[in-house]
Specification:
single chain, 375 residues, alpha/beta, Rossmann fold, 8-stranded mixed β-sheet, 5-stranded antiparallel β-sheet, 35% helix, globular
């Protein structure tokens, strides 16, 4: 990969990455010379004190401020104010409390607390640096930070851009069979290396082919086994209420389309996107798109109902975003709304999936443009 156009790290940042790379090399050697990509991704993002989300580097913000990317709540408070309309409707049916996973800078929590009658707001955050930023932003507000999710929660659960950073397994097709793509060493350099897929991964690839057709030799992609398990855990965490899962991705048939033959792994560093997960581990966000069909299947398997699925643009429009823009009509708000709604920005690629238990009323966010039939 040509890295000449990527921002170069400071000496301290490069040293930090080198320490994490050394830890990963030790892990590979201890494992006999090979680890699955999911293990590599886990270490690159979450190794204590060194992984991207476990260290103290800034993540959110524009490039000038040292950030690597921005999410919808950082783009505009319009996102949270529109989402508040859906939450307020749900508060007619469930307890007025919210549980947010991976709250980022805390901007979404701030905007929702200002726009709704939330009585209690809980945050589960694995990043010490982000938790500190959230505490600073949300001081004096009714927010409680949790180390583990509660059991039998009654209310609304939110996960905005959380599942895309859950470790994935990589696979490819070789000689008509599935192989697992893992990470090995060539000297001190990380390289991809294939092994025969273990039975669970081979079965998962078989399920994809049963829905999408046989994948050609050389086809490579990923399976979000951790995200599937996380959604299945909602069956334990959520006693009564709804979970709103917002992320970028596709239904299964689009995800594993024959033309998307190299998967969706992507890295972000100082607002530059690239596809080399081995470049400066610990300094790059490492992501994969979400298979929303798999998430819906996982939810259904644990007794949760799929309540709606649509694009972010349609969801925000259903929740009254244009009315919010008209009420506060400025060039800045209009530009922010365009980023949230445009097909060329976040509007089409990002989706909203709602699952829940004990929710009878149709949800306002899916009143038009519900795509559950594509899952």
């Amino acid at each position: 990969m040509d890295r000449s156009n990527l921002p170069q790290p400071t000496a301290d940042a490069a040293a930090h990455s080198a320490r994490l790379a050394g830890l990963i090399r030790d892990d590979i050697r201890t494992a006999g010379g090979w680890i699955g990509f999911d293990r590599y991704m886990q270490l690159a993002l979450y190794a204590p004190g060194l992984g991207y989300y476990a260290a103290g580097t800034q993540k959110f913000g524009d490039a000038a401020s040292g950030g690597d990317f921005v999410t919808a709540p950082e783009i505009s408070p319009l996102f949270g104010r529109a989402l508040a309309a859906q939450i307020e409707q749900l508060f007619e049916l469930v307890a007025p409390q919210v549980l947010e996973f991976g709250a980022g800078s805390g901007a979404l929590a701030r905007d929702l607390l200002a726009a709704t009658r939330i009585e209690r707001y809980f945050i589960v955050e694995v990043s010490p640096e982000l938790r500190a930023r959230q505490r600073s932003l949300l001081a004096s507000r009714p927010v409680t930070w949790l180390d583990t999710p509660p059991v039998d929660f009654d209310g609304v659960i939110i996960a905005n851009e959380v599942m895309d950073v859950m470790p994935v397994q990589l696979f490819d097709k070789r000689g008509g069979k599935a192989s697992e793509r893992g990470v090995a060493l060539d000297g001190d350099r990380f390289v991809f290396k294939e092994r025969p897929a273990p039975t669970p991964l081979a079965q998962a690839v078989g399920e994809i082919e049963a829905h999408c057709g046989v994948l050609a030799d050389g086809y490579a992609s990923e399976i979000g086994t951790v995200a599937r398990g996380w959604v299945a855990s909602l069956g334990t965490w959520l006693r009564h209420g709804a979970a709103l899962l917002i992320d970028y991705g596709f239904p299964r048939r689009e995800y594993y389309h024959p033309q998307r033959l190299m998967g969706t792994i992507m890295c972000h560093h100082r607002h530059r996107a690239h596809a080399d997960p081995f470049w400066l581990p610990g300094l790059n966000d490492l992501t994969a798109h979400v298979d929303f069909s798999a998430l819906a299947d996982s939810a259904s398997a644990v007794g949760l109902e799929v309540l709606g699925y649509c694009t972010q643009a349609r969801f925000l429009l259903n929740c009254g975003l244009l009315d919010l823009v008209r009420d506060e009509h400025t060039p800045q708000r209009a530009a922010q709304a365009k980023r949230l709604l445009s097909e060329a920005e976040m509007g089409e690629l990002f989706k909203v999936l709602a699952v829940g238990r004990g929710i009878e009323a149709p949800l306002v966010g899916f009143a038009q443009g519900d795509r559950r039939d594509t899952l």
